[in-house]
Amino acid sequence: MSGDQKPTAPRAETRLEIALHFSNGGRLTPDELRVIAAVRKQRSILGASRATGLSYRTCWLIVDALNRAFEQPVIATHPGRRGGGAELTPFGERLVALYASIERRARSQAKLALEEIAAALNPNFERRASDAASEAAKPESVPRRSQGS
Q: Where in this protein does the record put region Disordered (predicted)?
């Protein structure tokens, strides 16, 4: 390798992320799914906070918003029980499965279009410091409260 060439890191593949925004103001996005997965694994909101790197308050707000968005709770919380805790409800498990199904179908249907877009990408593109700074300056994703509560 000559002195003026930089070693290139492998680039991530172009990916498709699905965000569902419901008519009642609720939402289900990759961020909410990460919290759900962490609650499922850690069995607590505090554990999910630690696992995701989000504040406890942010995780709690996400859980609260999810539970209010649907007629059935997505995550059952058990405050006051020794050690407290939280777990996915059967409806929460079904919601995750439905989201995964939507994601699989969207990826399958969009595969050729994504490949065409990816082929048109500039291989020498590098994010500018100002792009990265503005991305990092975005506030934490906090679910909006519905008007009715």
A: 128-149
Q: Find, among 48, 36, 28, the residue nearest to 99 by Cα.
A: 28
Print burial letters for 73-103: b (CB count within 10 Å at least 16), e (below 16): ebbbbeeeeeeebbebeeebeebbeebeeee
| Structural domain spans, the chain | 26-121
Classify strands 86-88 and 75-77 as parallel, antiparallel or unpaired.
Answer: antiparallel
The CATH class that applies to domain 26-121 reads mainly alpha
Tokens found for residue 144: 């909006």
Residue spans of alpha helices (H) in the chain: 30-42, 45-52, 56-69, 90-119, 129-136
Nearest CA to 22 among 141, 133, 143, 138? 143
pTM: 0.73
Q: What is the pLDDT of residues 35-92, one digit of tens each?
A: 999 999 999 999 999 999 999 999 999 999 999 999 999 999 987 656 669 999 999 9
